[in-house]
Amino acid sequence: MTVKIWIGNLGKYNEAISHGDWLTLPIADEEDFAEFLKQKCGIGEEDEFGQPYEEWHICDVYSDIPGITIGEYASVREIMELSEVVEEIESLKDYEYKACLAYMDSFNNDWSEAIDVVKQGRYMHLHWIKDYYSLGEFFFEEGNYKKDISNFLLGFFDYEEFGKRMGSDGTLSEEHGYFEMR
Fold first, then answer.
1. Are 1 and 62 in contact (CB under 8 A)?
2. Is the model's pLDDT at 171 over the cut of 80?
3. CA atoms of 76 and 129, how far apart (whole Å)
């Protein structure tokens, strides 16, 4: 997984000079970020009048992780928080990552919340379930309802409607499957 932020020197940008570089997240700490700004963006260098360049801005973001965003004038704190989120995402197991994507698709695009829900195990994610019929079959089999219905009546059972009712507390998408908060 990759998250890169192109950070440029705002003072030089205003002078029609593009000066900056890509920062790959996560980064270790604020000192490393300050060193990046100094070495790659020229923050701290002096302009032609002897004034140091102090301002920087985010010009572009590349991420193959859905939902990763950051504003043009993000603070150091915001970049460090995003760096922590990226580090947490990278530590997720594949099924946890998929559950986070399903959470975000179902509720919001907040990676921190999604990671908390998944790490605490407060969810059910059936990534292979793509429709209500399959969801109904799953709940029917897992709930052991078959013992209560004769084989003759079983042929009339509506798995799709059962799936809609049993899955009413969650969300279903073709991309991420069934997701339910617990």
1. no
2. yes
3. 41
Query: By three-state DSSP, how is residue 29 classified?
Result: coil
Query: Dihedral (C-alpha) 114, 116, 120, 124: value to the nearest 10 degrees?
Result: -10
Candidates 139, 119, 121, 120; CA nearest to 129 is 139
63 or 157, greater pLDDT: 63
d(CA 115, CA 79): 18
In the chain, the amino acid numbered 134 is S
Q: CB 168: neighbour CB atoms within 10 A? A: 8
pLDDT digits (tens, 9 = 90+) for 68-90: 889 999 999 999 999 999 999 99
Tell me the pLDDT of the chain averaged across its residues. 91
Total length of the chain: 182
Cβ 7 vs Cβ 41: under 8 Å:
yes
Residue 120 neighbours by CB under 8 Å, 6+ apart: none
Q: How far apart are the first and last CA of the chain?
A: 28
